[in-house]
Amino acid sequence: MIVPVPEHTIKAIAAYVVNARPNSKYRHLFLSLHSPYRPISPNTAVQYISKAMKQAGLFSSAYWLRHTYAQNLLNTGATIYEIKEMLGHQNIQSTQRYLHIHTELMRKVLFDETL
Fold first, then answer.
1. What is the pLDDT of residues 20-45, one digit of tens each?
2. How far apart are alpha carbons 53 and 60 in whole angstroms?
3. Can you give the pTM of this predicted structure?
């Protein structure tokens, strides 16, 4: 899957790969913290993200980030079908659960008016 990534994020990932990522035979981006260095599991990634969110004062789950991502895509004009693909959903009903009605955007698109 190809997803758009902001330039500053690409630079941060490049800095990690060059300066901090341990040497490993695996091509995965993120590896375990201790030798033998292996790809981390999705559950491990969720744990790290949750911990970082708590340290930042965001008391929610890593899953919440998917909802934010989906809503931000909608707000920038992506269609529900594009969002479905970006989230990797098999059916549109799964994607609909991630999106909240944005009244102002809906009026602009449907009626070409602003509140």
1. 999 999 999 889 988 999 999 989 98
2. 7
3. 0.60
Q: Which amino acid is at 109?
A: V
**Cβ-contact 110, 99 below 8 angstroms:** no
Q: Are 78 and 65 in contact (CB under 8 A)?
A: no
**Torsion sign (Cα): 65, 83, 5, 39:** positive
CA distance 115 to 104: 6
Give me the sign of the Cα torsion angle 53, 57, 63, 69.
negative
DSSP string, the chain: ------HHHHHHHHHHHHHTSPP-S---S-B-SSSSP-BPPHHHHHHHHHHHHHHTT--S-THHHHHHHHHHHHHTT--HHHHHHHHT-SSHHHHHTT----HHHHHHHHHS---
